[in-house]
Here is the input.
Amino acid sequence: MKGMSGSPETEETYKWKALITVALGSMMATMDASIINIAFPALTTVFQADLTTVVWVTVAYVLVSTSSMLIIGKIGDLMGRKRIYVLGMGIFTLGLMACATAESVGELIFFRAFQALGAAMTVSTSTAIVTEAFPRNEIGKGIGFLGMSVSVGFIVGPILGGALLDWLDWRSIFYVRVPIGVVGVLLALFLLKKDRGKEGAVHLDLLGTVTSSAGIFFFVFGVSQIRAYGLSSPRVYLMVGVGLVILVLFLAVERRARDPIVDLKLFKNRVFSRAMWALFLVFAAAPAYILIMPFYLIEARGMSPSQAGMLMAVTSVITMVVGPVSGSLSDRFGPSRFSALGAGIIGVSYALVLGFDLHTSALAIVAVLVFLGVGIGSFHPPNNSIIMGSVTRDSLGTASALIATQRQVGIVAGMAVTGTFFSARRAFHGVALGREGVSEAGPVAISYAFHEVLALAIILQGVVFLLCLGRGRGRDSRAVSRTP
Here is the structure.
């Protein structure tokens, strides 16, 4: 099933070598996403630019990485995933070096876009490499450990970034990580086995490449503008509309393509399709926690940023611990029931957060965040295992890229809608409470708006739970043969 030869002992050793290699790349990518935002204040000062310009350091990264993942996943299937991963780590590391030398905010944005291409190449192939390296009955465990590296990146990023900005300067958040990137390239070169690409002539779907990349780019760009211009902005509707039209064209192109980027027949598999939708909705609901919780903790409760950061890190730590356990158990007892359990726990956790007010104890907050971490850790490894186990070997890269794309698009859409809704409801409650003469109207308004955002997240999680249950009993067997 794995397309590699050797004794069981050799394969047993190789799976851990492959996991360690791609886990380092995944940790680097997620660390990069979480480390840069903490430098925004310093960047606005150094480059004498306003925040609306500096934020493009992140926006450009997201747009390039998200819009390029599908085609990169397909190229990995055609040409070999090791080759794409190694090249991606190299580009990512060169991007770090280039960002550290930027002399203007424009240069930094350009170098970040270049770096994002490398990140997309590593992220798009990571899950596929782990899936192919691990035996069929251990895919969940492998993906669970890979998810641990993602949690480590999210935890370490803000902590490392804050320390570097305190001790050195903004350039250090890039150049300090260059040696780690070099190690990642060397590990990939010497530890990953060369995988075979598609035999025979390679036909790249150029029209599909253009339409998929352009459609995702315009859609994500349009959605990202919601927070700045509002849901009623013609600019937003134009960009999102153009993106959706191009994506519809992409679907039409793929139906006729000789070797499509995304084989639409995959979505006829109910198990695969439901797992994909569940993944998207989980990330669309997540900003209710990751984006709005800091407002509640810092502005409503008066905590310091470091205190709030430590509290929110609890969820990532628990996710990091639970993920591998959930993945291993799902291999043994079936991934559908564990993904459903995780989705249910996440929804219940959001419901418990509805009980937070201006006087909720820190211990109670920690307890709920621990529970949320259990839910997240229980959901993702089994759900991703279902997706990866539902495709043939020749489509592993495509499925891996689809997971990464769903994650990025879901969280961008969720942040835009959640941020806009929260801002509008916060302003509404602030005015209403002010008229009533309520003391602490500002903090109370944040609490009310936070609860309303959570209500939306709970609804989305309810849909996720139903999608997981809808897979039905006995549907945990791999829906598609693992060999072409």
